[in-house]
């Protein structure tokens, strides 16, 4: 398969030169960088640190004078160039590097044309720009890979804690959806769907370099390995499940050949096991859980669902 081609456009006014090597390394994972342009007022001392990096990394500087105080001419120049490149149709995607939300509409417009957009910016980058991208990478994470051990602030740790709960809930929902369709949930699928839900999701934000290591931290899910295939499943209390399964078999068998209404069976189970939740075992409905138990089948008799014992 041919490599994907990307246009790299950098907003020098809103990104530090210290990130250039991590930016190029990260983008090279996606494909070949065919355009490398950086926008700013090169007569300003504010961008002096970038000048040393331009020749070294073969980046084309685009001069944009600040004609009016408080107005960002760089944004306009980047947007015009991005649209020109888009219309040439000779790239598969764009990498927009900025911590400024002014490029949110540009990103949306590029994606409307079927091109992938990778956003990169500092942790301060506003949420609208992050979510507009197919994938958003926090620049501090890239720098920390080269300079490990940088401490996270207390506010950042609290935010990550809240996000982890949200992420775990999202993964559990994926697993239950797939189980309803009798599908396993692969590790790769979890990674792809998390990025679709949260474009700025990156395990490096949590101090990991592999998704599998990150998921091992959660208490409600587990990794299951079958040869070289790794899937993600709900972490079950197997002792309790065996106990509940045995109780269900006992009740259904006792009911005889006519079986027992599912609603009655459910009431008996919930009465005996107060903390029982079918979602903890990967099911959305009680009949799906009961069907999974050996020697039990669920049949519809008229408008009523019944559980029956089979040898």
UniProtKB/TrEMBL annotation:
InterPro entries listed in its UniProt record: LOTUS-like, NYN, OST-HTH/LOTUS_dom
Signal peptide positions on this chain: none
Alphabetical list of Pfam families matching this protein: NYN, OST-HTH
Domain HTH OST-type intervals: 163-236
MF-aspect GO terms: RNA nuclease activity
Protein name (record): NYN domain-containing protein
Organism: Clostridium scindens (strain JCM 10418 / VPI 12708)
